[in-house]
């Protein structure tokens, strides 16, 4: 598998969301609205995106 990356942007606030989801957002390195990070495209990253996808915008 090549070095594939996924660009993830926080587009919705974590205020009022499930505390576990807030920890996941912190864990992948997102801090503020419209902040973006590049993450490796693997099963762990896909699992996080599946759970908190309602807060994110994902670009491949």
From TrEMBL:
CDD domains xref list: Ribosomal_L30
Origin superkingdom: Bacteria
GO molecular function: structural constituent of ribosome
Annotated InterPro entries: Ribo_uL30_ferredoxin-like_sf, Ribosomal_uL30_bac-type, Ribosomal_uL30_ferredoxin-like
Keyword terms: Ribonucleoprotein, Ribosomal protein
Location of the Large ribosomal subunit protein uL30-like ferredoxin-like fold domain: 6-55
One cellular component term from this protein's GO annotations in UniProt: large ribosomal subunit
Pfam families, A to Z: Ribosomal_L30 (PF00327)
GO biological process assignments: translation
Family of this protein: Belongs to the universal ribosomal protein uL30 family.
Quaternary structure annotation from Swiss-Prot or TrEMBL: Part of the 50S ribosomal subunit.
Stated name of the protein: Large ribosomal subunit protein uL30
Species the sequence originates in: Bilifractor porci
Gene designation: rpmD
